[in-house]
Amino acid sequence: YKNPNTAGGRTAMVHLFEWPWRSIARECEDFLGPHSFGGVQISPPHEHRILYDTNIQRPWYEAYQPVSYKLVSRRGNRAEFIDMVQRCNNAGVRIYVDAVVNHMCGGDAGVGKGYGDSAYDTDAYAFAEVPYDISHFNVPQGYEQCPTGGPINTYNSAQIVRNCNLEGLLDLDHSQGYVRDRIVDYFNDVINIGVAGFRVDASKHMWPDNIQAIFDMTDNLNTAYFPGNTRPFFYQEVIDQDTGEAVTAAEYINIARVTDFIYGREVSETFKGYKSLDSLSSFGIHWGVKISDETAVVFIDNHDNQRGHGGGGNVLMYKNQEDYKLAIAFMLSWPHGFPRIMSSYKFDQQWTGPPADNDWNTEEPTFNADGSCVSTDSYGWVCEHRWRGIKNMVEWRNQAGTEPVQNFWGDYSRLAFSRGNRAFIAIGRGGSSINERLQTGLPSGEYCNMAVVDYDSSARSCTGHSTVNVDSSGYADISISGNSGDNLLFIHVGASK
Ligand code: ARE
Ligand code: CA
């Protein structure tokens, strides 16, 4: 379950948070495929509650309140979902589903209908379309099942964390074969459509044995796109920041991959200047990061902690533009974990939903001539994955492959290294310039500095003037000013003149 099942050695994914399916299909064809992205984490595709009140209006987080497993959501219907999966797979880009199966919607929902018209009654714990009834939930089974009688009010008890309601969301009992079967039916439905894997939301709130049993019942991936007997990719959302809670990531690492929340915090703090950049030379499992290379999904920020919750705090995000770009570039350069790039929309309130018209129809992203997404100072899609320093680092990581870190050089605010003889990167933070003759590890040649130019592979030329000349012994003059826009330099064997 730990293999991301990417096509052709691709090594990174992007979370297109709240993007509609039709926009993702187009992005796979026009951008992600051509730029060698491995996959997309999509927002939850299942039917969800519709949240509306005059203050919060249509918050993004209604997506995390399932009403049924029908494929109809604010982001698109079943036909659009199928079309997206097909078109992305055909572009060599995998789809990973954000699966919300720990719970159904909040107990505050009452009686109503979900986005796809399916009825619910949370007082009766009834979800007609699945169907679930009161016997399938933990809290109604009494204090022996959920000792608080309702909410998760502490993270010091595994039983409370796993059998009580997270944020008031009605908690399913996964020890029951019936409940497992309904979830497996949902997983198999999207597997048969052609998805490659799943982010398993709130895995911390599910017992590892139950998770294992559910994963083991899933079908192999669709042979229209994947080799026979390919297992789905699973990555479990477990927030473990070493704070002594009862539930730890270690309980999940033998099952499938796990999201590492220490990684992004440590890299963010380093790029904010709390630690020296050259201390990153030993970054990884020996540095305090808890989850090993082949088990971690790594990221700088996610849709929760960029809003300051869900284990949030000290992470960089799009609002810290330059330091953030460098942190993402470092993540993509470093051989640890399967990296996920966050692609956001601008927000001021933590509940603000995606860019939308007056009827809450999500707006499709549109693009400027330079490929960036159209937005104003406070509104619109950010599209971090289209920033040149980020999109070209995805290709850099693919080119670096499994080569080790070599030729590490650095000090408090600067670093440079190669990945074997295939790729080289240099970073100068906070105005720290680099003017050094450094060993790049690369064969001699004239390479395009992909941090500031693009590469035209058919003409074998840079679409700008920034190049690096590597001599026959691998040395080159490396020069950046360290100021915004000129704080990053990277070259690889796939882009030379
Ligand atoms: C919303 C309202 C609630 C309301 C509820 C029901 O905010 O007030 O009671 O609806 O009506 C997201 C939002 C929630 C939202 C929910 C449902 O973040 O605010 O509730 O959707 O709409 C814990 C979990 C972790 C979880 C985070 C947020 O362990 O799994 O909390 N993250 C995932 C998703 C979220 C999503 C959910 C789970 C629910 O990524 O986007 O919630 O599906 C410490 C602990 C962490 C803990 C953290 C809480 O750091 O170590 O484990 O994370 O505190 O901040
Ligand atoms: Ca639970």
Explain this structure.
- By secondary structure, this protein is an alpha/beta fold.
- It has helices at residues 21-32, 78-90, 158-163, 177-193, 208-216, 261-271, 321-333, 388-400; strands at residues 13-16, 39-42, 94-99, 103-106, 111-113, 119-121, 126-127, 169-171, 197-200, 233-236, 257-259, 296-298, 338-343, 405-411, 414-419, 423-428, 434-439, 445-448, 455-456, 461-462, 467-470, 475-480, 488-492.
- The chain has an eight-stranded parallel beta barrel, surrounded by five helices. Strands 14-15-16-23 form a four-stranded antiparallel β-sheet, covered by helices on one side. It has a three-stranded antiparallel β-sheet with strand order 5-6-7, with no helix packed on it.
- The mean pLDDT is 96.
- Residues 61-62, 64-65, 100, 106, 108, 155, 166-169, 201-202, 204, 237, 239, 245, 304, 309-311 line the site of acarbose derived pentasaccharide.
